[in-house]
Automatic annotation (TrEMBL):
Superkingdom classification of source: Eukaryota
InterPro entries from the UniProt entry: ARM-type_fold, CEBPZ/Mak21-like
Protein name: CCAAT-binding factor domain-containing protein
Assigned GO CC terms: nucleus
The organism of origin for this protein: Allomyces macrogynus (strain ATCC 38327) (Allomyces javanicus var. macrogynus)
Phylogenetic classification of the source organism: Eukaryota, Fungi, Fungi incertae sedis, Blastocladiomycota, Blastocladiomycetes
Length: 171
C-alpha cells in the first residue's frame, strides 16, 4: 500500500506502518512495536551464529526478523521517494515520519539521518527549515548523545559540490 501512486493511500499506509513498527498509536511505545527497542534487527545468517543449536522456534523467529529487516529497508526506499514528491504536504509529512522512526528505534538510523539531513537542501524553504528544526530537536530533546553523529552528517552534507547558499544556511 505504501508503494501506491495514490498519495493519500500511501501516506496513510506509511503512518500505519510507522505505528506498527515503533509501537505508536494505540500500542504503548515502551511495550509494543515490531522493531526491538534495544538493538538492531539481524539477518538470518547472523542470528544463526548467535545460537549454537537452534530449535524450530528459533528458526521461525530468525526468519521473521530477517524478512522484517528487508521490508523495513524497502520502506526506507518508499520514504526516500516520497521525500522527493512534488506536493509540499507529502514531503513535510515524510520528514516528520523520518524523525519519528529515528527517535523510536535504532534500526537503519544512519539511512534515516541521511534522508533527514538531505531535506536541508529542499527547494521549498518551509521543508528545509522544518528539517533543520527537527534535527535540532533530535540533538537536544530526543538523543543528545547523537550530536557528534549529526554534526558529521551535516559536515558531509555541506561538503557536497553544487550546494546552494540556502542549504548551507539551514545546515
Amino acid at each position: 500500500m505504501a508503494k501506491k501512486k495514490n498519495r493519500r493511500l500511501a501516506t496513510l499506509a506509511i503512518d500505519a506502518l510507522k505505528d506498527l513498527l515503533t509501537g505508536g498509536g494505540l500500542i504503548s511505545s515502551t511495550t509494543g512495536g515490531l522493531l526491538p527497542a534495544d538493538r538492531k534487527l539481524k539477518y538470518f545468517i547472523d542470528s544463526l551464529a548467535d545460537v549454537p543449536v537452534p530449535t524450530d522456534a528459533h528458526l521461525v523467529v530468525f526468519a521473521f526478523e530477517d524478512r522484517l529487516k528487508r521490508l523495513y529497508f524497502e520502506l526506507l526506499g518508499v520514504l526516500e521517494q516520497q521525500s522527493h514528491d512534488t506536493l509540499v504536504h507529502v514531503r513535510s509529512k515524510t520528514t516528520d515520519t523520518l524523525l519519528d522512526l529515528l527517535v523510536a528505534r535504532p534500526e537503519q538510523e544512519q539511512n534515516l539521518l541521511k534522508l533527514l539531513v538531505n531535506k536541508l537542501g529542499d527547494l521549498e524553504r518551509k521543508i528545509a527549515a522544518k528539517a533543520s528544526y527537527l534535527l535540532h530537536q533530535l540533538t537536544t530533546e530526543h538523543h543528545p548523545a547523537m550530536k557528534l553523529v549529526v554534526v558529521k552528517a551535516l559536515e558531509e552534507f555541506m561538503m557536497r559540490p553544487h550546494m546552494t547558499p540556502r542549504a548551507h544556511y539551514f545546515a
